[in-house]
Design goal:
This protein is α+β, with helices and mostly antiparallel strands. α2 crosses α3. The protein has a domain of 85 residues: Bacterial Protein-export protein SecB. The protein contains three helices and four strands, in the order βαβββαα. It starts with 13 loop residues before the first strand and ends in a 9-residue tail after the last helix.
Amino acid sequence: MADVTANGQAGQPQLVLQKIYVRDVSFEAPNAPQIFQEIGETNEQPQVQLNLGQKATDLGNDMYEVVLSLTLTCTLGERTAYLAEVQQAGVFGVSGFNEADHAGIIGSYCPNLLFPYARQVISALVMEGGFPPFLLQPINFDALYAEQARRLTDGGETPVLNS
C-alpha cells in the first residue's frame, strides 16, 4: 500500500541518512612492545584476518539503526600483534519501498555506505597503535547480501533485517 501525503498524493520511496557515528571502538596490542622487534627481525609475514558482521534494528517510524562490525586481527606466528574492532553505525529513514527493495537497502546499501567510515577508523587505529598502515580492500556487500538471501530461501526461511 502506498504512503499518502497530507495533500492526498501517493508518497514516493524515501531513503534518508540521519546520522553516521562510531558506536564502539577497541584496539589491543597485547604483545607490545616485544612484537615490534619480532616484526622487524623475522621473515615471517604477519597474517591478517577480517571478521565482518552487521545488524539492523527497527527504531519505529520507518527509522532503522544499521551497525557494521569489523574485527581485524593481525598475528605473527602464534602471537597476536594487534586486534582492532569498530562498530560503525548509521540511522536511516527508509519508507515507501516494497519488501524486497527495503530488505536490500538495509542489508546491502546501508552497510556499503558505512564501510568507508569503518575502514578509516580501523586504519587510524592500526597506525596509532604503532603498526604499518593497513587499508582494508573494498567489500561487495551486494554479493554478501545476495548469498545470505539465497541461503535463507534455500533453507525455507525468509530473509530478515538482522544478520
